[in-house]
């Protein structure tokens, strides 16, 4: 199991201050849900955690490895232990379900793409891919093209691909945002079953307050680039959670509720 530690994290896009001196520690094996309105900085934080964005100051460590300074082989090594579940699935829609799951092993094997291509992959890798599909109850769809699946089914395939990676930490960025409520709850049930079985650390951003209260060990709330709530799920009251979506919530708003003036540059942070 791995822990996550964020200390003094600041991220700017030009003059726009998106992440504002964030401090957060997530214990090994803990399930934490991140809540906040669109534009509050959630997606930017997730990208920094995976090294897709670089902060201007502060540090992020995963399992005591510094993500913020890592480059090249070192960064790839850290990413091998970090599984990511995206809102938009990020599957290759023209290829089969089985092939998409095989791609999850690419970072674990020398030789790159050819070692996880269906006809060239070792039997042990192919067997593991089927096992992962069985775990998400999608083995009967192994030969289907991903474009022919429903949204909920595609997210199940994405979770199977993530399992192929053998990650220690899961970053899930709005994993059910594009699904209907029934499919979303089924995906959340499955995701939490998997991370519990494998004792993974999970940091999951959501909008749905009911899902956060049903699944999280702990709830963290962001507003206008700052962490304003950090509490055990059992102590999270509806009034405090609703406040995350009221008033000036965006990092690019004219005022942000903390005495910090708006930037007024016209720049927009990615919806988060």
From TrEMBL:
UniProt key word Magnesium: no
Principal EC category: hydrolase
GO CC terms, sorted: plasma membrane
Family matches, as CDD domains: ABC_PhnC_transporter
SUPFAM superfamilies, per database record: P-loop containing nucleoside triphosphate hydrolases
Known EC number: 3.6.3.28
Keywords per UniProt: ATP-binding, Cell inner membrane, Cell membrane, Hydrolase, Membrane, Nucleotide-binding, Translocase, Transport
Membrane topology: Peripheral membrane protein
Domain ABC transporter: residue ranges: 4-249
Coiled-coil parts of chain: none
GO MF entry, a single one: ATP binding
Pfam families: ABC_tran
Principal subcellular localization: membrane
Subcellular location: Cell inner membrane
Protein's name in the database: Phosphonate ABC transporter, ATP-binding protein
Organism: Marinobacter excellens HL-55
